[in-house]
Amino acid sequence: MLKRVILVFLSCLCLWASYPLSSMAEIDSDRYDGNIFVVYAGNGSLVPPRLTLKQSFERELPAILVYYLDDNSDSKEFAFIVSRFQEFYGRAASIIPVNVDTIPMKKNYTPDEVGYYYEGIIPQTVILDQNKKEIYNGKGIIEFEEVDDVLRDLFNLLPRSESVQLKRKTFNEFNSELVPEDK
Question: What does pTM read for this prediction?
Answer without folding.
Answer: 0.77
